[in-house]
Amino acid sequence: MTAKKSANDGSPYYVPPEPKPLPSFLLAVAVHAALLAFLAIGVSWQKVNPVSVEAEVWDMSVQTAAAPELPPEPAPEPEPQPEPAPEPPPPPPPPEPAVERPAPTPDPEIALREEKKRKEEEAKKAAAEDKKRKEAEAEQKKKKLEEAEQKKRDEAEKIKRDEAEKKKLEDAERKKKELADKKKADAAAAEKKKKDLAAAKAEDARLDKLRKEEMQRMAGAMGSGGTAAKSTGPRSDGGYIAAITAAIKSATAYPGNTDVGGNPRATFRVEQLPTGEIMSVRLVKSSGVPEFDRAVENGIKKASPLPKKKDGTVERTLDVNFSMKDYD
């Protein structure tokens, strides 16, 4: 089939092929079959069976009964006349050739409005996306700040726990060191006490030796010279007593509490050589406070040699008294 040109714009077009007749024929057969079925159903629905009526006649006279009449036979139903065969439908007319119409010229104002509308929708969409993005960023930033704050609190708690643990360890170490220092101090004090005791024993031995030598010297002097020193009691010399008291007091260190009632008093007997060196110290009367008694005794020993009188002599035996209030 050749192509034909349109009379409007001269552009070529093609005539579409004719449709196949088989589907149209089958559709016509189906329609006629449905019509026949409808007619048959209508005829059978309007069929009415005749009603038979029976009657009996009685005669008072005696008669021979006649046989009853039989009802008439029903008329035969008319046979349905066959429908004439349907004529095939005429073929459909060929479709008109499609004519291509020229595209309409777009209106500039409509195009501008559509472009403006499109830009507004794009701007709204961009604004919505930007808002959503900013909200997501703000939420992310808030989440990061909360995480940072939580991390900061966790670090503070960790530092606090570490400091508490460190302090606990330091306290344990300090207690351990204090215990070691106390043991060391106790050992040093015991060693010092041992050394002081040994020194005191050595000093007592030295003073005993000096006292024996002095006694031997005095005994030899009395035998060779033929004269003997007279035993006289100690003469009152306020300056001498004051000097001895001051010397012993300055050498005595009593760290205890002196605020006690009754002003305890200790009395010591001191024996000394002519040079003023102390040979022995003996507690005659205790103050009742052992620490005070030991402090005064140590002070007397440290004050050796004791001051002499103005004439250079000393009292061989002295009784010295010290009250606790003297050390206030």
Automatic annotation (TrEMBL):
Boundaries of every TonB C-terminal domain copy: 239-328
Name used for this protein in its record: Cell envelope integrity protein TolA
Compositional bias ranges of the Basic and acidic residues kind: 110-208
Residue numbers spanned by region Disordered = 64-208
What is the annotated localization of this protein? Membrane
Judging by the UniProt lineage, the source's domain of life is: Bacteria
Q: Which GO terms describe its cellular component?
A: membrane
The protein's GO terms of the molecular function aspect are: toxin transmembrane transporter activity
Chief place where the protein resides: membrane
Keyword annotations of the record? Membrane, Transmembrane, Transmembrane helix
Q: Where are the transmembrane segments?
A: 22-43
* GO BP of this protein: bacteriocin transport
What InterPro entries would the database entry show? Tol-Pal_TolA, TonB/TolA_C, TonB_C
Pfam families recorded: TonB_2
Compositional bias ranges of the Pro residues kind: 69-107
